[in-house]
Structure formats: structure tokens, C-alpha cells
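Sequence only, no structure available. Ideas?
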Amino acid sequence: MWGQVLLRSLYNPKKEISMSKIAVFVFADSESHADMGRIANAMEMVHEFKEAGEEAKLVFDGAGVTWPGKLADNDHPLHGKFEEIKPNIVGACAFCSKAFKAEEGVKNADIPFLDDFNGHPSVRTFIKEGFQIITL
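Reply:
I predicted one. C-alpha cells follow.
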């Protein structure tokens, strides 16, 4: 198996646990510096797992659907990281893209719309497929 990511348990630092699949859901808006920190951390998590040969996916949901259009801009400071992890981006919530008026930005970033469950991405499907869910 490709380089396995091992994490130390918070309760027992000598015990190692393995997580091989993560799905990072970005709900953070794109309005503040703190929001930019959240998307930067989300993309860095995906990059870390990808680099270790583990499976990692990223989903834009809620106000997070405002990010693709901004990150696709060549002048955005996180554009390079966005392009690096783009193969790991599953998509953006179809319902939220419309609600937050972000459909054009999502389309321009070439990110697919997800509408598996009542117009939203299905978190349950990721869990059934063995993904650990991380939300930011």
C-alpha cells in the first residue's frame, strides 16, 4: 500500500490509527481573512493525503461554493494550490451555488455541480464509501 498516513490518537499517543480516505467539505465563505485560512487548510489537507498516496476529495458546500470562482483567478494567492488539488475536487453543491449566486464562478472554474440528495451533495454516500468527513 502507498505510504500510509498514521495519526497519533489524542487519547493514547502511543497507539497509531490509520485514515486512508478523507472527504473535506468546505462550508466557509470567502469574505474574510479567516475564511481564506480555512480554504487554505482544506486544500493543504487534501494535498497532504494526496502526497502520501491516500485518497482525498474536496467538496464545496454552503457558502463554500463562492470559492471556486475566486480560486480560479490566476492572480489569487491560492490559485496554484487550487490547480494542484483540482483533480481531487469532486464538485460544488448545485443548490447552494444557486442560493449564493455562485453558479457562474463554479462553471468558470470547471467544477461540476453535485445534486445527489435534494440538490445537495450526499454526505451519506461518502461515509458509505469509507471516507472520514472533515468540515471547514
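The domain at 18-135 is CATH 3.40.1260.10 (Hypothetical Protein Ychn; Chain: A,).
Hope that gets you unstuck.
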